[in-house]
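Practice set, problem 2.
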Amino acid sequence: MPHVTKPGCARPASGTEGRLGLGVPGYAHPLLAPLEWAELARPAAPLHWAVLDVARGPGGGPDPACREAADRLRARGRPVLGNLELRDGARPFGELVSDAHRFLDWYGVDGFYLAHCPCAPAQLDETRRTATTLRALSDDGPLVFGHGRHPYPGYADCADQLVTFAGGWPDYRWSQAPEWTAALPPERFCHLVHGVSRTHLDEALRIARWQGAGTVWFTDRSAARGADPWEGLPGYWDEIISRLGPGVSE
């Protein structure tokens, strides 16, 4: 991984260089989803990072099951990111730093996923301040900004990777990337898409590559009736592993 000489500057997230891989936005608790967490440690899984979200953050105290799941992934060299909820910039700076300390102390996370990260120019300076502090706390660990849409371009200077799409398949198949993204390599972008059927998986992969995303999470799980589509594995898990595994040509 290239060395970052200035806190808050961007660089490729660990393991993302070179080929399309997976970013996991957050499974259910390891006691409720043991298979899912075990599968992330599978040697063939092209995992760029996985988010640990204990209770919309680090929770109220250390959770041994979450620590065990995180340690298993980290032992395989798979980065684990603590989930920090920014609430579109509404979270106080002190709360975020406190949550970051808990994630590091209790779970040994490698870096952080900033959920619901703001997108507007007016909030860039405060987000940069947060990113600089998190890098210092985590010994320059990876940062992924969970915007869910394309932000003001300046945010790309603060994070290793931007989630520039998070939503359903009908919207994704007609989405477009703004021109400024073409100046950056694919490892700087991630797309999270739910409701992708098996028959549309190849099309979804083509869209990701065409729009310049280096990390994806596609699932056939639904967000209907308030369900969390990210809590479990897609029904075509083995198939997507074979599509993206080592030796697969892009």
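Problem 2, part (b): a different protein.
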Amino acid sequence: MVAGICAGAVAAAVLAAGTGGAHGYSMHTDARFAPPTAFVPSAAVTYDSKLVPAASWIEVSQRTAENGATTVRLRVEGLVPGHEYGVHVHQKPCAADPAAAGGHYQHEVGTDAAHVNAANEVWLDFTAGDKGAGEASARHDWGFRRGEASSVVIHDMPGTHGARVACFTVPFGWVTG
């Protein structure tokens, strides 16, 4: 059975890999949330199972055009109906410690108000509908730098100061050439 689980994880990783090059990049990946201590680990980790229940679902896609313009889309199912969530692209992959994902990815790096905003970061805030589903998208005229965008973190409230309640490691890509 362990071999079957490993084969399934490899297949999921292959399906999550994006396509790219000089003509753009596109990627689509999804997962079910699991606690960091789950027997079968997941790329989607819930730190607060009341707001992001185990087995709830997340899907993230990215499309970056040859000129660098990037659209990131998010869809979720199984979250708390009516709850407002904040979601941002973060710098590092998820881990058992919510802080491991690092800070928000920023196009122009800085700490003042001119840098911490939806124009300089990827914000995907949403309110879950009556069945716990939600979606959001963000488009920017810029793309990610190689290796500097690695996850999507769900916060307990919209904006920039909410607690980290879940994290999804995502194979974000960039345009080369």
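Answer key, part (b): Strands lie at 19-21, 24-34, 44-46, 57-65, 70-77, 84-90, 126-127, 134-140, 151-155, 164-169. The CA atoms of residues 68 and 143 lie 5 Å apart.
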